[in-house]
Specification:
heterodimer; A: about 325 residues; Rossmann fold; 5-stranded mixed β-sheet; globular; B: about 325 residues; two-stranded antiparallel sheet; binds thiamine diphosphate; binds magnesium ion
Chain lengths: ~325, ~325
């Protein structure tokens, strides 16, 4: 089977949707030459009318996309840095997201916001290493964080076809993942549907984005001691609560690994919701960035504040010991 | 309306004036909750600009937005019902005074965030033209908005991409209590000129003068010209917001208010009509508004169970907040 990289999967999703639907177009900084490599080849294929380089005016081009969506087009907006989402949080939340309700259902805002390389990029330091998916889940904007090439393809396709705004986080830690993929089998992945990557019976590990791969590795390492189920939500909002509850109901234990700050992070929401619905055998655990973390520059420090395999192993063992 | 139509222009300013006066009564009676930002004194701007637009052209308004929505042709009864939060309102009671929208007639919404709508309208006009609709747009904003980065970014995008948007600055001398002199370095037309846009200053109290300036700008835009700006000098006759009727804020000297109110767009437009014509328009407007008030007050309030209807165009039903 041919191998597909996560990055190429995103490119392929963009190309397929642009071919299928004339109303899809791309907006972003340095996307003609594909500085992030995600839009590679698209200018040549679709021309400058559909692959549009913008001035460095994130707030205006984000709302420009809102207007274009209100008028019937399907913009995909690429952001060079995850923290640019802080700059345009107002435009996405206060306008794109709120328009359907505030207008009493008079409009749709089908915009896709694509962040290639979210989270730590190693060595890019404090202002380039954020992972603000929890913010969007909090305000109720559809948020997807694919972990694998096939899901990157399928979720980006679904995001573009979706009638509401969708933020697509493509974690830096997953961008170089490659997988054997049957190209003919690439298909849209439904928004709001999680996936059990690895079946297990003793504990459910929920892993977000690139951390799915760490969770799978840890599950393999622990295979002799415990049977670990790895659940990848894929979409953080709306979350596949039924899928997760089904898993935890079988295993009775829950550990979450989430690359965002602890306080009000998605891990807290996942645990809260599960304990509302399932009687666990042991207290749940989470592995996250520390409260209020700013990623420091030096590689060892950068790694020190990201959730890692060692911490995950410890957390799993802790929940297994209790109960 | 390329040619002058004094009766129509007077009808629009008179309609907005009397609509606002009735809305103030309904604020005082408690029927309208949350208050309003009255457009009193500024009616000539919305009336003049919208008289120069075609039905299919697009507009966005502001927090002081009733006049823009009415001048573009919204049904006053449904507009009033919206202010009362009734299901028959333009936004089914989901928007209220600051978010009234009527997509069917090209009103992409009043917008409560100062300076936010310009980029949205620019994107919408650009998208519609790209889809083959030969239309233009007008976006209204106050003097406070000219210090908002996102609006200045929108100036740049519109000018760069030659999107035919008329940027209409309603300079009423104050952003809430902040005088223009205390807030604006340089000039308002100068901001547009810095982006290569043509800019004009007009007497916003004279609806015909506004119409003439807008018609000239729009004719140039329809002929392939880029965006333009009009600074309409005006005066707000009443409060920034009706909360000022309760809490007196000391920022405009009574003498200044008297001078400001002495140039009344309703009198200026009305003075160009014969007595009989004017009386006929007045009677027609009263009858329209009598019916509007009756319709709005008789309309049902929305069911609380449907409070979050239209939150997602996809129909996604959000989790409730209870146990
Ligand atoms: C971005 C933003 N900042 C602050 C406010 C609060 N606010 C509402 S209206 C207003 C004043 C706006 O002044 P101006 O643009 O001149 O319009 P006017 O009220 O005079 O019509 C302010 C500060 C807001 N709604 N949006
Ligand atoms: Mg003002």
């Amino acid at each position: 089977m041919p191998r597909l990289s996560y990055r190429k999967a995103l490119t392929r999703a963009l190309a397929d949707e642009m071919t299928r639907d004339e109303s899809v177009f791309l907006l972003g900084e340095d996307i003609r030459v594909a500085a992030s490599n995600v839009t590679a080849g698209l200018l040549k294929k679709f021309g400058p009318e559909r692959v549009i380089d913008t001035p460095l005016s994130e707030q205006a081009f984000t709302s420009f996309a809102t207007g274009a969506a209100l008028a019937g087009l399907r913009p995909v907006v690429e952001f060079q840095i995850p923290s640019l989402l802080f700059l345009v949080f107002e435009q996405i939340v206060n306008h794109a997201h709120k328009f359907p309700l505030m207008t009493g259902g008079q409009c749709e805002v089908p915009v896709t916001y694509l962040v290639p390389g979210s989270g730590s990029r190693t060595g890019w330091a404090g202002q380039h290493s954020d992972h603000p998916y929890g913010l969007f889940a909090h305000v109720g904007v559809t948020t997807v964080v694919p972990a694998t090439p096939a899901d990157a393809y399928g979720l980006l396709v679904s995001a573009i076809r979706h009638v509401d705004p969708v933020v697509v986080f493509a974690p830096a830690g997953a961008m170089d993942v490659r997988a054997d993929v049957d190209f003919a089998a690439l298909a849209p992945v439904p928004i709001g549907k999680g996936r059990v990557h690895r079946a297990g019976t003793d504990v459910t590990v929920v892993a977000v984005g690139h951390l799915v791969h760490d969770a799978l590795a840890v599950a393999d390492e622990l295979a002799g001691q415990a049977s670990v189920e790895v659940f990848d939500p894929r979409t953080l909002y709306p979350f596949d609560w039924d899928g997760l509850v089904e898993s935890v109901s079988r295993t009775g234990r829950l550990v979450v690994i989430d690359d965002s700050n602890r306080s009000c992070g998605i891990a807290g929401e996942i645990i809260a919701t599960v304990v509302e619905r399932v009687r666990l055998l042991a207290p749940p655990a989470r592995v996250t960035r520390p409260d209020g973390a700013v990623l420091p520059f030096a590689p060892a420090l950068d790694r020190a504040v990201q959730p890692g395999r060692e911490q995950l192993r410890t957390a799993i063992q802790l929940t297994l010991k209790e109960g | 309306m390329i040619r002058s139509d004094p009766v129509r222009l007077y009808r629009t300013v008179r309609l907005i004036r009397r609509f606002e006066e009735r809305a103030l009564d309904l604020v005082r009676s408690g029927a309208i909750v949350g208050g309003i930002h009255p457009y009193l004194g500024q009616e000539g701007i919305a009336a003049g600009v919208c008289a120069a637009l075609r039905d299919d052209d697009l507009v966005t308004g502001t927090h002081r937005g009733h006049g823009h929505v009415l001048a573009k042709g919204a049904d006053p009864a449904r507009m009033l019902a919206e202010l009362l939060g009734r299901v028959t309102g333009l936004n089914r009671g989901r928007g209220g005074s600051m978010h009234a929208a009527d997509f069917g007639i090209g009103v992409l919404g009043a917008n409560a965030i100062v300076g936010a709508a310009g980029a949205i309208l620019t994107g919408a006009v650009w998208a519609r033209r790209r889809r083959g609709d030969d239309l233009v747009g007008a976006t209204f904003f106050g003097d406070g908005a000219v210090n908002e980065g996102m609006l200045l970014e929108a100036f740049n995008l519109a000018a760069l991409w030659r999107v035919p948007v008329l940027f209409v600055c309603e300079n009423n001398g104050y952003a809430t209590t902040m005088p223009v002199d205390g807030a604006v370095a340089g000039t308002i037309p100068g901001r547009a000129e810095a982006f290569g846009m043509q800019a004009a200053v007009v007497d916003g109290q004279d609806p015909e003068a506004v119409r003439v300036a807008a018609a000239a700008a729009i004719a140039r835009m329809r002929a392939g010209g880029g965006p333009e700006l009009i600074e309409a000098r005006t005066y707000r006759f009443d409060a920034h917001h009706t909360f000022e009727h309760v809490v007196r804020l000391d920022y405009r000297a009574p003498e200044e208010v008297a001078v400001g109110r002495s140039r009344d767009p309703v009198e200026i437009a009305g003075g160009r009509l014969g007595d009989a014509d004017r009386a006929a328009v007045d009677a027609e407007v009263e009858a329209t508004l009598d019916a509007a008030v009756e319709f709005a007050l008789a309309s049902p309030e929305p069911e609380p169970a449907g409070a979050l209807e239209h939150l997602y165009a996809s129909g996604l039903v959000a989790r409730t907040g209870d146990a």
